[in-house]
Amino acid sequence: MWAELHCHSTHSTGNRIMLEGLNTPQHMVRHAKRIGLDIIAITDHDTVRGGVEAEKYTKQYGIIVIPGEEVTTVDGHVLALGIRETVPKLLSVEETLERIREQGGIGVASHPFDVKNEGVGKLALKCDAMEAFNALNVERISNWKAAMFAKRYRVPSIANSDAHCSMMIGYGRTDIRSDADIDSILNAIKKGRTTLQTQYIPTKIIMEWAVERLKVSYAYTLEYMNENYRLPKRVVYKKLLGLVNKSPGKIDYLFRLITYFSLGNVFIYRAFREILRI
Question: What is the span of the domain harbouring residue 28?
């Protein structure tokens, strides 16, 4: 059975930009079924509300929905799969995993070696499984490190898209050899009965997601800039923010250029950082 186990809905929010996820849990479930997936997990930031809401659509769309959460621990992010009560953020990895397992769920190290240092790194060894591939780690080095780490220490692995909108679903997916129920699925992941299918999310989709979330969070982001940015940074960023209202249109060429430039810089930064560690 093919699964997408890392998705964010409109229940995922941020500090500088209000909405991280663009689509409702129902839209995410519906699209997963449309592209031929058998399983989807909704794992919003520090809340299980999206996952529990999505579970209501299991029968309607004929797809297994696993409620979950992406928990922010003091050491990095951990996916909680198969839980129905929110695990508090900013606990240690060990306590977070204990609370997940108390609910009958499993803990998965999400993007453990990502460039933003939001993963748990080597503490992935404490988890039940880890993401050996995350389709949003477009600088690729993060995924290479994760895959090598999983192979070296024989950590059960999955591939995920880290989808923040419906069009991102299914680029990183996992074939799970189990019965068609949540307990069997989680047990199969823990035992490593998985095969990974990996593809990076196209830059065009990442750009469209970035622009759209700025559009829907426009007033919130503008207020954040007014309160937290000083001159001249505030003026420059407000001018750039105003450009999103011209999309779609010719302005998208500029946004695409900015996206490619940013991704290139991220790759160079990560490569340089790894060289310094050698």
Answer: 2-201
The most distant pair of C-alpha atoms in the chain lies apart, rounded to whole Å, by 58
d(CA 12, CA 43): 9
Which is nearest to 3 in space by CA: 65, 68, 79? 65
How many Cβ atoms from other residues are within 10 Å of residue 94's Cβ?
A: 12
162 plus 237 within the same structural domain: no
CATH of the domain at 34: 3.20.20.140
Q: Which residues pair with 43 in a beta bridge?
A: 68
Question: What's the first-to-final CA gap in the chain, in angstroms?
Answer: 40
Please tell me whether the overall predicted TM-score, pTM, comes out greater than 0.90 for this model: yes
Among 171, 154, 149, CA closest to 162: 171
Cross-strand partners of 77 = 72
Reported as a single tens digit per residue, the pLDDT across 211-249 is 999 999 999 999 999 999 999 999 999 998 999 999 999
State pLDDT tens for residues 175-195.
Answer: 999 999 999 999 999 999 999
Mark which of 201, 224, 259 sits at the end of a domain: 201
Same domain, 142 and 235: no
Per DSSP (E only), the strands in the chain are 2-7, 39-45, 64-73, 76-81, 106-109, 129-134, 157-160, 172-176, 194-198
- Note whether 180 and 241 are same-domain residues: no
Residue 167 is encoded by which pair of tokens?
Answer: 């069009």
